[in-house]
Amino acid sequence: MSWSTFADRAVALDAADSLAHLRLLFDIPKDVVYFDGNSLGPMTIRSREVLDHTINVEWRERLIRSWNEDWLAMPLRIGNKIAPIIGAVTDTVIACDNTSINLHKALMAAVALRPGRTEIVIDINNFPTDIYIAQSVADQHGLQLVAVPAEEIANAISERTAVVTATHVDYRSANILDSATITRVAHQHGALMVWDLAHTTGAVPFNAVELDIDFAVGCGYKYLNGGPGAPAFMYVAPRLLESASQPLQGWWGHALPFEFELAYRPADGISRFLTGTANVLSMKSLEAALEIFDNVSMDDVRAKNQSLTSFFLEIYDEFLVGQGFDLRSPRDPDVRGSHVALGYSDGKVLVETLATQGILADFRPPDLIRVGFSALYNTHRDALELAKHLSHIDLL
Ligand SMILES: Cc1ncc(COP(=O)(O)O)c(C=O)c1O
């Protein structure tokens, strides 16, 4: 197939795209083609408007009154906006802290619910922070961290396992793990399951209730477009909300924070997983960006990002194979998340060179180029543009 045939198809696919209008809700510089939403989502127009109002009205004019008028309610309110995106019910998700801290809280809570068990099972290729956090939880409890490749997780779970943790969409390959099987096996052995949904939330449908998972954590700044440093979130299954304990007992997780009691009493429900003061500006930015998801179905988001990554791979097969690239993502779109990973020996230089041409993707050592596609703003023409630049690699 020729470049012009792909160009015609890109135009047709974009014309038929029912989500195309969403791109107008973002303020992406005209000279940028953006493939890094799996790392930092671009700015939404609503975030800018809401932050402007927060700074000029809520902070400047209303000052400390804004805590009661609005800000205190934000972590739960935003959690409830994230809940449908991960298939959770109301009041089981809270927006707070960062993913690392939330993972720590979830693992500590899980381990406390399984006294006497001696192991934590983790995907050995998990994002490093997950490994570091799990190791610290294991060390604090005198447990062993059993780290195995994703396909061996189910076999590594036993009656010794307190908790299993893995990232649903692998941050390098975009491989989607079999969340149903892993969760089921964990439960069959009496262990608890914590999923990291960093590369899932806002890109790949997930159903926390149907899967019957115990805990989940995820990022607000990737596919949710909350902005740099946007708060993360934490999910706790309704059946565990009263028994799971918060290891970082702070005043925001107290039953009555403004009574200033000296003894800690956990708040009811998911609010006990708060620790300290919310980052109001980041929360506001995230809340504004989440409005986009109000009228978007995750199935449509998924169908479009599968179309984008599959279209890119078709062009890859036609023009890029044999040019030093090595596909590191699954070919099957059903087990491929929303990014495509390509190995390339000089990947770092290539990504830097692309950036000078306004094409922003990212690089992960030692040789991985990650190209993130978001259904909310990327087009098939973007995919074509990227492939064209990659095909002229010798000219870069
Ligand atoms: C899978 C995964 N988990 C956790 C994190 C880190 O999250 P945080 O910086 O919010 O702690 C990342 C960041 O990219 C990630 O990809």
Can you put this structure into words, describing what you see?
- With about 400 residues, the chain is an alpha/beta fold.
- The chain has two domains: about 5-15 and about 295-395, Aspartate Aminotransferase, domain 1 (Alpha-Beta Complex); about 50-295, Type I PLP-dependent aspartate aminotransferase-like (Major domain) (Aspartate Aminotransferase, domain 2).
- The protein is built from 13 helices and 13 strands.
- Strands 2-8-7-6-5-3-4 form a seven-stranded mixed beta sheet, with helices on both faces. Strands 9-10-13-12 form a four-stranded antiparallel beta sheet. It has a two-stranded parallel ribbon with strand order 1-11.
- A hairpin with a 3-residue loop joins strand 12 and strand 13.
- The longest helix is centred in the last third of the chain and has 23 residues, at about 300-320.
- It is globular.
- Pyridoxal-5'-phosphate binds near residues 196, 198 and 219.
